Amino acid sequence: MAIGDRSDGVLLRKLPGFRKIFPFIMRTRTESVIYHSQRLKIGHALAWLDRANAGREKKITLFHVVLAAGVRTLALRPDANRFVVGRRIYQRRSIDLSFVVKRELSEQASETNVKISFDPRSTIADVVDRVTPAVQATKRSSTSSDEKMSDFVTKLPRFATRLIFWAVRTLDYFGWLPASFIKGDALYTSVYLANLGSIGLDAVFHHMFEWGNAPFFVVVGKRKKEPVVNDHGELEAQDVIDMKFSLDERITDGVYYATTIALLTDLVENPEKLEVPPDDLPDPFGLV
User: What is the DSSP-derived secondary structure letter of residue 81?
Assistant: First the structure.
């Protein structure tokens, strides 16, 4: 590993100065965030799900499609798989998706984070095979490593808790955090997703965390019928979902973001494209 690189990222040394200076002008994710709302027409995707799930033991859900589309999008659009730490911009070494799992659908049930790494060539079937057992294992468990750590740290005196957080942030700034710590923290991730549709809620804009290095927060809303203009210019009711994006502006430009979100939208609306691996993948490290 070269000097300046991290266990989870490669320092982008050859970026234009205009891009390198952004983390000094906008020091935090909170002041760098931009928001985008996207409506997706999912009628075709729902029909595809009905066909794909016929006779299938591990059922594919719409959220699986969103996750698989996210993996494929990051694989094909690697500039979106970057992050900022310590006033520097890094290319992430892996494709990681994090999301919340609620152990039961009740107000009293606890929830925890799940973080999964994916092969860039993953198909929708590969994603289902990775996600389903991880979610089932989480729901069966009574606690998780991050819950145990949170319980331990918050039982300490406040000065000790603050000291621990200061130490972690300092190590993170200089790229010295152990790989094991980063691997176990769901906020060190390519994208953090919240599936509010699973509990019958519509999408909202998620806040950005200063902890970790996640540059994307994506919220998926509930399935609903809304009036949409069809290909013939007629107004009709169609199945749609809304997705809300909170993005760190520092890692790439607006045109690249727009094209990336357009690709994600197309893959969710046409999930048959996720049935096979991508033909060719760009080298995320070839331009740096």
Answer: S
Domains, the chain, with CATH or none: 29-132+180-274 (3.30.559.10)
Q: What would the DSSP string read from start to end of 9-24?
A: EEE-TTS-HHHHTHHH
Alpha helices in the chain (DSSP H): 17-20, 22-25, 43-52, 62-76, 124-140, 145-154, 158-173, 179-184, 254-269
Q: Which helix (H) or strand (E) holds 220?
A: strand 216-220
For strands 235-248 and 88-92, give the pairing.
unpaired
* 3-class DSSP string for 121-149: CCCHHHHHHHHHHHHHHHHHCCCCHHHHH
Q: What is the DSSP letter of 79?
A: G
- pLDDT tens digits for range 173-184: 999 999 999 998
pLDDT, tens only, 92-109: 999 999 998 876 666 555
In angstroms, the first-to-last Cα distance of the chain is: 15
**167, amino acid identity:** A
> What mean pLDDT comes out for the span 153-167?
93
Q: What is the pLDDT of residue 152?
A: 87
| Cβ-based burial of 148 (10 A; exposed 0-12, middle 13-18, buried ≥19) | exposed
CA distances from 206 to 28, 54, 117, 174, 247 (A): 16, 35, 22, 27, 10
Q: What is the pLDDT of residue 43?
A: 94
Q: Cβ(48)–Cβ(268) under 8 Å?
A: no
- Alpha-carbon dihedral 24, 284, 281, 72, rounded to 10 degrees: -40
Which residues, in sequence order, are bridge partners of residue 20?
none
